[in-house]
Amino acid sequence: MAIEQIDGVTVVVLPGKDLDAGNSKEFKSEVAAVLKARAKVVFDLGRLRFIDSSGLGAILSCLRQLSSQGGELKLCGMSKSVRQTFELVRMHRIFDIYNTKDEAVRAFQP
Amino acid sequence: MQSTLRNRPDNVFVATPKRSQHILHSIPTVIYVLAVTPKGFESEWVSDSVVRILGYTVEEALAPDWWVDHLHPDDEDAAIEKTSVLMTRGHLVQEYRFQSKDGHYLWMQDEASLLRDAAGRPKEIVGFWTNITERKQAEEQVARAREQEVEIGFKIQQTLLLDQPPRDFPGARVAALTIPSQRIGGDFYDFFRHVDQCLDVIIGDVMGKGIPAALLGAASKSTFLQALSEIISLSDRGMLPKPEEIVTLARAKMIRQLISLESFVTVCYARFDLERRRVELVDCGHMPVIHFRNSTGTCTLLQGAHMPLGISEGEIYEQVSHPFEPGDVFLFYSDGITEAQNSAGEFYEIGRLAECVRTHGRLDAWELIKRVRMSVVAFSHSETFADDLTCVVVKIEERELPLARAETEIQSDLRQLAKARAFVREFCRNVPGAALPEERTAELELAVNEALSNIMKHAYKGRTDQRIQIRAEAFADRVVLRLHHLGEPFEPDLAPPPAFDGSRESGFGLYLIDQTVDEVRYLRDQRGRNCICLVKNRKTA
Fold it and tell me: Rounded to whole angstroms, how far apart are CA atoms B298 and B305?
C-alpha cells in the first residue's frame, strides 16, 4: 500500500485492481493501522477497476474510523464503473469525491 | 282384567309402591312432572334419582328457578327458547349442559311431553332427563379425530402427493392446481426431468378417500420414481426407459399390495419429448388428456385403453404417441373436476372443461389454470368440493436455442470471485452478434459477484471447500447466468433493506443484484441444487 504525505494530507493509493469480498477484510485491517492518529486522508482509487458491496463496506468503515477520531476522508481517481457502483447505493452522497489527487488534497487546505 | 290378574303366575313382576320407588331411584334417568300454570311451569314432582345423577336433593330440585339457574351459560338461552316448541308441538328432545351439585357440568338429554286435560288444555309436562356426558365426550373425540385426519391428510397431500411443477424447463411451461376437499383424496402428480429435453408428467388418482387413499397415493408416486431409477441404473448409459417400461415395472411392484388392499390406482404417464415434438402416453384408466392445438384452435381428447393398476396382472402396456407443435396445450386432471356438481346435480363434465381450454388455450399456463378454476367454481357456485380438484397444464413453447453457452466451476472461496468475474467478462465480450456493452457487462459482473458471495457466506456458511457451478447462456435478446450450489437456499425476502445513510457497512448485496440485472430468480434445479438465475437484457427496454 503506497502512502504519500502532501501538505499534511495522507494519500493512500489503493493497491489492487479489485476490492471485493475476497480481499476487503485484509484491506480493512491493513489500512486501519495507517489511519490511526491521522486526520486528513485521501484514498486514491486510480488503480481500482472493480468494487463490490464488501469493498464499499470497507471504505465506509474507514470513513467512520476517521470521523470517530475527528478526521476526514476524501476519495479521488474513481473509474467510471467504480463510480457507478458508489452511485447505485448512494454512497456518492456520503463521501467527498474528487476527480484527481491534487483536487482532493487541495480541498483540505484552508 | 280381574281374571287375568288372578290367573297370573307367581313369578311375574308386580309394581308395588315400594318397588316403584326403588326403580325410580336406580334408573339412569330423572323423571319429572311440571304443572302448566298461567305463570309458567311449576315443578311438581321429581324422581329420587336426581340425587344420584345430579347430587341435588328432591327439595332442591323442586325449588323455583332451580333448572334455569343451573343451565350452562352458553346453552341457557337456546334451552329456554326451545321450551316454547313444547307448547306448539307437544314433544321436545334437546341436549344441553347442566351444572351438578359438585359444580361440574354434565351433558343432559331432556325429553319432555305435554299432557292435556279432557278439554284439550295443556295440563302438565312429563319429562325424562338422561345423563349423556359419556356419549357426548365420545362424539367430541370422534369430531376431533376427524379434524385431525383432515389436517394430517392435508399435510400428506402437500408434502408427499403433490410436487412443485418445474419452473424453468426450457421449451415448456408447466402449471398445477389443487383444491383439497374436506376429506383428502388420493390424487397425486409428479414431474421427472431428463436431459435431452424430455419431461415426464405423472398424474394419478387412488380409489377411495381419507388417509388410506392418501398413503396409497404417496406409495404409488414413489413407486414410479423407483421404477424409473431402477431401469435407468440397469440399462445402458444414456438410454432413457420408455414410459411403457416404467409403468410395467411400477405395476409389478404394486399389484400384489393393491389387490390385497382391494384398491386400484388410475394413472396417466406422459413423456414430452421437446426435441422430437411428440408426447408418449400410457393411460391406465385415468381421465382423457385434453390436447389443445394452437394451429386449429380445437381440442381433442387423448385416451388410452388400459385398465387401472390393481385390476389385472397380465396386461401389456403400450404407449401411444401424438405429435405437438409450439403453442399446444395439454391438460391433465382428476375426476374431481369433471364430477364437480352444481345445485341441480349436474356434473361439470369433460365437455365444459374442453371448452374452457379451447377458449383460454392461448393464455399462459398459469393463467389458463386460473381460468379452469374460475370456470369450475362458477359452475358449482362453490369454493369447496366433495372431491379433490387436481389439474396440470403443460404448454409447449417455441424452443429457443441459446446462441452461445459456457460453463465453469469455482470453489466456495471468496478469493475465487475475481475468477468468476473474469469468466462473465470473457463470455459477454464474445457473445455472437454485438458484444454486450461495457456498462452492461460491468453490471452483470457485479450482480454475479454479489450473488456468489451471498452463496459463499450464507448458503455455504463460510465453508471454502464447496463447489459452485456457473453456467452462461446467450440468446438474441439476453444473457442468462445460472449459479448452482448445494448450500442452504436463502430467502431474499427476509433480508433487510440497505441503509443508504452510511450507518451500516453491509447489507447492500441483494439490493445491488436487483439494481443491476433485469430478472433474478431463485430456483431449485433438476438435480435438486439451489440455483440463482440472473438475466441481463442485451439492450435497454
Answer: 23
What mean pLDDT is predicted for residues B295-305? 90
**Closest Cα in chain B, distance from residue A43 (Å):** 17
Q: Which residues make Cβ contacts (< 8 Å) with residue B267, sequence separation at least 6?
A: B202, B203, B204, B205, B220, B224, B247, B282, B283, B284, B285, B286, B308, B309
Whether the pLDDT of residue B12 is over 60: the answer is no
- Mutation target to probe the A interface, by most A beta carbons within 10 A, among B410, B411, B413, B417 is B417
The alpha carbon of B370 is separated from its chain's Cα centroid by a whole number of angstroms, namely 17
A49 touches chain B (CB under 8 A): no
Task: Tell if the CB–CB gap between B442 and A84 is shorter than 8 Å.
Answer: yes
Which residue stretches of chain A are H helix?
24-35, 53-68, 80-88, 101-106
Q: How many angstroms separate the CA of residue A78 from the nearest CA in chain B?
A: 15
DSSP H helical segments within B90-197, as ranges?
133-156
Residues of A in contact with B418 (CB under 8 A): 18, 20, 22
Checking B513-519 for CB contacts under 8 A at 24+ apart, the result is: B513/B447, B513/B450, B513/B451, B515/A88, B516/A88, B516/B443, B516/B444, B516/B446, B516/B447, B517/B443, B517/B444, B517/B447, B518/B478
Task: Write down the number of H helices and E strands in chain A.
Answer: 4, 7
What pTM value is reported for the model? 0.57
Q: What is the pLDDT of residues B195-249, one digit of tens each?
A: 768 999 999 999 888 788 888 898 999 999 999 988 888 877 667 899 999 999 9
Give the tens place of pLDDT for each residue, A38-76.
899 999 999 999 999 999 999 999 999 999 999 999 999
Count Cβ atoms below 10 Å from residue A21 Cβ, excluding itself. 23
Query: How close is the nearest chain A Cα to the Cα of B524, in Å?
Result: 26
**Are A88 and B512 a contacting pair at CB < 8 A?**
yes
Q: Identify which of B63, B71, B69 has the alpha carbon closest to the alpha carbon of residue B129.
A: B71
Interface touch A88/B453, C-beta < 8 Å: no
In eight-state DSSP terms, residue B347 is B
pLDDT grade for B529, boundaries at 50, 70 and 90: confident
Nearest to B513 by CA among B454, B450, B469: B450
> What pLDDT is attached to residue B507?
82
A32 — contact with chain B (CB < 8 Å)? no
Cell numbers placing A98:
474528487
A90: contact with B, CB 8 A cutoff: yes
Distance CA B65, CA B39 (A): 13
Distance from CA of A67 to the nearest CA of B (A): 12
C-alpha B366/C-alpha B362 separation (Å) is 11
Q: Give the three cell numbers for residue B43.
A: 315443578
For chain A, the residue count is 110
pLDDT at B1 over 60: no
Q: With an 8 Å Cβ cutoff, are A84 and B445 in contact?
A: no
Asked if B264 contacts B289 with a C-beta cutoff of 8 angstroms, the reply is: no
B516 vs A contacts (CB less than 8 Å):
88
Q: Which residues in chain A are closer than 8 Å to B420, comparing Cβ atoms? A: none
Picking from B323, B289, B480, B334, the residue whose alpha carbon sits closest to that of residue B396 is B323
Q: Which of B132, B118, B115 is nearest to B33 (CA)?
A: B115
ipTM of the predicted structure? Answer: 0.92
